[in-house]
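User: Okay, second chain of the day. Same drill as before: sequence in, structure tokens out.
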Amino acid sequence: MKRTLLLLIIVSNFVFGKDVFKIGATPIPAGEILNEIKEDLAKEGLNIEIVEFTDYIMPNLALADGSLDANFFQHKPYLANFMKEKNLDLVPLEDIYVPPLGAYSKKYKSVNELKAGDKIAIPNDPTNAGRALILLHNNGVIKLSNPEDLMATEFDIVENPKKLKIVSLQAAQLPRSLEDVDLAVINCNYALDAGLSPQEDSLIVEGKESAYGNVVAVRKGDENSKEVATLMKVLRSDKVRSFILEKYKGGIIPLF
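Assistant: Same drill. Structure tokens below.
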């Protein structure tokens, strides 16, 4: 009887995923990277389930409420701002890669071709909006009062010689907006998902100097757990570095 009960508990745990470490991730590139190391993690005793999200809000809420054990999709400035707004207690771990933000156009081959009154779409969340404006500043499209301010807004634009119109959209909508705007500044994961290459298709793009390395986030108190240590060891391995370099050919920049 006891043996049967023990077997039922083991089967139940397997079926309902109690022994599975759940990680929320955007499909590209974070989800692809995690799938690449899923078997390696299993060999280390960590069985993961990758839960895919196509937005930047639910992964942190799901982590905070315990639906996830970790997430992998965001940079530290975004996480810091999100935690402040939602009063969450999450912890960022080491940088994994920079997914470079790029500006794309179906109309132009260079930002120098932009004309008076053209529309530029940028992400509508505060940190990525500031990031987009800094990219435009660094490439001479506009001028900001303080290009070091990661939370810059349209009100911080001090020079806009072509009177370009800045349109804020949800990050996931930006690739589709290319049909309606003259230039769109698109987050790397959404660009890749839309078949765009940051290195080959963008008019301007961030480089290694970017302050926006993507990280794994966990709940406060879990950052030193055995499971998290195993995940980070494998995620920051030579195998993952080689995978990133070969798979994305410069479109994603490893930071380890």
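The longest strand covers residues 90-98.

User: Thanks, on to the next one.
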